[in-house]
Amino acid sequence: MATLAKWGQTYKVLLDTGFTTTAFILGTSTLDGTDVLDGNVEFADVTEWVTSVNIRRGRPDQLSTMPIGQASIVLDDKASGRRFDPANTASPYFQGTYGISPMRYVQIYGGTAGDRPLFFGRIADVDVEYQQPNQSFTYVACVDDLAQLARTNLTAFTPTSQLSSARVSAILDRPEVAYSTATRAISTGVATLGTVAYDDNTNVKSAIDSVVQAEDGRFFISAGGTATFQSRLANIFGTATAFFTDNGGVGIGYQGLSIGYGAETLFNRIQVGVEGLSVATAVGTASIAEFGVQTLALDNVPLVDMAAGTTLANELRDKYQNPVFRFDELNLVLNGLTASEAQTISTLELGNIVNVIKTYTTGSPTSIARDVVVEQISHTITPMTHTVTLGLGQTSLKTEFLLDTSELDDVEVGLG
Fold this sequence. Notes:
mainly beta; 15-stranded mixed β-sheet
């Protein structure tokens, strides 16, 4: 059953048992009833036996491809009567040949009502550890649907020139992929891709990663299991969805903040190799004079032409040609926060914009406030505490250009 923690959040962990419910049965089900042809997955609420949950979704930095989202669940197998032990054929979850087994679904919820998805995915591994004299714990490793895409390969096809978002949809629509349209959120891209011939056995995740690189966007599986594509403009006209502070003012209090200021995000010569064509180059002359040549090279980017390659190179040069004092990582503890503050944190998603304030007791300035974008979300949940770590990336927000109102040379506005 769902568990209410002492800090006011409700948690629920559901595992797919392999059984189905509401399956349509000829001669029994009614045509206008609730039964469906394939039935619905039957989930078991296993929350009462959970001793800890760890979740990590998102990428370590904005130049990395999106790794597979992961979750790990530790269950007290002894207290459950060995119901999670794959060797126990008397388990209530055992049917036919398998009990709780790989590739079945898992759902983890949090929030004040226990209805906020923290992770939807599939079981990748079930391990049992026996401790004498009669203790046993089950460790369930889970992955999101990026793992499914990483284990799927295309058959040869050649799509026409199209926007990056249309290319993602075309890949997901392929019969050998057959990704459900009900669990997609594909925003319209900016980059136009060329006519690229995908060979037999091209990996699906790698193909989508190349599209994301061409767009300078994101593709990830949301906490609720939705395949999500965001364009490079996804955040540029956005506003902060949460505010974090260390001074007791307006906003949610945080426990720790990591700052980065180094060469890892300093690139002043961008070389974009456009697939089938040549290399588009953008150079930050002043930055090279100050810091020396720092090259970021991208190969086989599936853009439509060299002009599109130059546009991407210029965009990356402008973003990375100067070292930036960055807010890299934010650490939060839900214990002690108000219910609404904890709910706000549980609702955060990759790509959301948040505002962070850091104050100082000496030096100048006395405070720095930054709008940043969430690139990674990690949860560690035990009976005693729930900590959240947000990996952050840089963003440059603009307001939309308004005819007869905005100034032509104002760098803080842009075309929506």
